Structure formats: C-alpha cells, structure tokens
Amino acid sequence: ISYAQTAEGALDEVSAMLTRSKELLVQASTGTYSSDDVTNIKEELVALGAEMTNVITSTEFNGISITLGAKVATGQDGSLEIALPAVTLTAVDDLTGALADVSDAAGAKTAITKVEEGIKDISTQRAKIGAIQNRLEHTLQNQKVTSENLTTSESRIRDTDMASEMMNFTKYNVLNQAAQSMMAQANLIPNQALGLLG
C-alpha cells in the first residue's frame, strides 16, 4: 500500500506540473504576449519538464524506483502475488522537446496536444495504481476481519471448555463428598452395633 501511495504522490505532483504547463502553453498560444513573456514562459516550461522527469526517475519506495514496478507476495506462504505497475510516462518524455518549442503559436498548440497526452497518460497510471491500492486495502481489511473472527472463535472454544471443566469439577466434588459421607455412615453402624452388645 505504501509503494502505491508513494507512486500516487509522485504522479499527483507530475499531474500538477502538467496542468501548470498547459496553462502556460495556452497563454503562449494566444500570440498576445511579448517575446520577453514568451521567453519567460519557455524557461518555466523547460524547468517544469525537467522537474517532471526528475520526479518520475528519482521517486523511490524502500529503495525501489517507481519506474521499475514491484511484486508483492502476501499471505502466509506468499502464494498471493500482486504486481505493482512501473510508472512509465512516455508522453512526459515526448513532452520535454515540445515544451522547448513554444516560440510561436503553432509550436505552443503542438505542445498543448503533448501535454494533454501526458495528462491522459498520468490519469491512466493513477487509475492502475489506485485500483491496486484499493485491492490491497480491501485485502488488508478482509485479513483484519478474519483475524478478529478467529480470535473470537478461539475465545468461544476456550470459554466452552472452561464451563465444561467447571461442571465436571463440581460433579466429581459432589460425588467425593457423598462418598465421604457414606464412609462416615458405614463406620457408625459397626460402632452402634458394638455399643448395643456391650
């Protein structure tokens, strides 16, 4: 679950950067900005592109890069294996070159198309990771319920055995007291007979 949350966090950041890139590209595509403004937009877009690549390539969980994916084995014997997808965002890779070419409205519009592909790619990756995260959370919840039920069942079995043993103890205690009482009575009869004879 933590791996999926880490990957989701990275994808969320990339998604925010793509949204900002699209905003800047829309501004650049209008043709109403000065060449200095377009240069500033271009610089920010290049920085955003570099940071998106950095986030994707450097985000790790427990030493495992999110670009490699991971396999998780769970269950008592490790029989349940879940493959966590690698984060591969080819649209973001394609985007880096397109972001640098916003010197005119046509270049900006081409870059907008690339950004939209990147947003779609990110959404697909997030959906895959979210589905696996939900599956893991449901499995974890099911395991917790199963564990609670086993604990409750064991407690009932132990409680039942305790009640049965207390009943047996009481039964044998009563039988023992009855036997002692009968022995005492049996010892009195010969003494009474000797008292009458003697």
Give a written overview of the molecule.
There is one protein chain. With 198 residues, the chain is mainly α. It has helices at 2-29, 35-58, 90-100, 105-197, and strands spanning 60-61, 64-65, 70-74, 80-84. The mean pLDDT is 79. It has one domain: Up-down Bundle (f41 fragment of flagellin, N-terminal domain).
Total number of strands: 4
- Major sheet details: 2 strands, antiparallel
| Alpha carbon gap, first and last residue | 95 Å
Helix content: over 70%
Assign the CATH architecture: Up-down Bundle
Q: Overall mean pLDDT score?
A: 79
Across the major sheet, the strand order is 1-2
State Rg: 39 Å
Summed up, what is this model?
The chain is mostly helical and 198 residues long. It contains four helices and four strands, in the order H-H-E-E-E-E-H-H.
Strand and helix layout:
Elements: H1 2-29, H2 35-58, E1 60-61, E2 64-65, E3 70-74, E4 80-84, H3 90-100, H4 105-197
Antiparallel strand pairs: 1-2, 3-4
